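Exam revision sheet. Question 4 asks you to relate a sequence to its structure. Input first:
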Amino acid sequence: MVQVIAAELVWTGERFEKAVHITVDGDRIVSVGPAQAPADVRLPGIALVPGFVNAHSHAFQRGLRGHGESFPAGKGSFWTWREAMYKLVGEISWKQFRATCVDAFTEMRAAGITTVGEFHYFHHAVAEDYGLDRVVLDAAREVGIRIVLLNAYYNTGAIGEPLQGSQLRFRSASTKEFLTQMDALGKDLHTTQSLGFVVHSVRAADKRDLGEIHRESKRRGTVFHMHIEEQPLEIEQCREAYGMRPMQVLLNCAEVDDKTTMVHCTHTHPEDMMMYRTCGGRVCLCPLTEANLGDGLADLETIGHVALGSDSNNRISMLEEMRWTEYGQRLKTLRRGVHKEAAHLLRHATVEGAASLGIPAGAIAPGHLADFTVVDLDAPTLRGATPDTLLPALLFGTSEEAIAGTCVGGVWSLKRDA
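Answer key, structure tokens:
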């Protein structure tokens, strides 16, 4: 089906413009330009921006909201949260798991997110059935969110140590078993679904398995993601086991390229980051989760361009992830920022996220997916904004009340009648 879309304002990559028509054929944009014909979809009082891309999510952790601080004082927030997570993993049923995923994905769409990179390691409903892999995909399809299922290999509980207790619900017994499951998942994907390869972390796989999974991702042409250097303890344990930092292990085991994304990099050594970025590697930050867990602030000046993710989903807001990406760096460097950063921040949540997930999204341009975030120009928090000030007003002065809906692959979901 062909649609000609006319919104009051359209973000064309550098600015909001008026009198722009977007022509969509099926799920793709075929043209963007001056109005030439009557529009099929008219959106007065609406601005369109590229659909927000959430490059790193653990949907089931939405079930931890409000529970991570329920343990005795004296432990760091990361450790109390981890205990809460293992408790949830040990108790949750597959029905509860599915409902939690639906809740998380629904909340994402309400926040303007059109694509989620679901970093999925909670595989088993019972024994080693991998039953929850399909549950995540089904939940995403029900909500109508585009998903890249970043399916994770998880084999050890710490470097050289077996998985225990609730962690067994994450287990892949071997790379062969994991790759067989990836093949099975790939046979029945919806058009809004694709797969990526993951090794959870250096503590979850030995060096040989890490290298094998990364090579297989390259052979299949898919993206590869991994958690890395989120906590100082991870670096200390890796140096004790291998005589190298985690990023050095990755660079020694894998042929890093632009399909490789490392998540967090909170404590990555600048020289390691320089080598990684020289190879083309990408980075995803999750500012709200990293702040909630007290991880620290990554050195964004060393990293450069980044994608953004909601990670633990304690708060689902891509607007806040963008905002706190900038605010965290202002606090880190004790410098005053200016709102000219807004266009750069939007790239983090769109262009960079899409590149990290390997999908043709993140821009309102021909050949890209017809995924849009719908902004309500009548929202009270945007009152007084002009086309020149709208983006910084949206990113620094509003929340989800300014999001009027989303469009995923040409299919609209609006909070009010257009």
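Marking note for examiners. The domain at 52-357 is CATH 3.20.20.140 (TIM Barrel).
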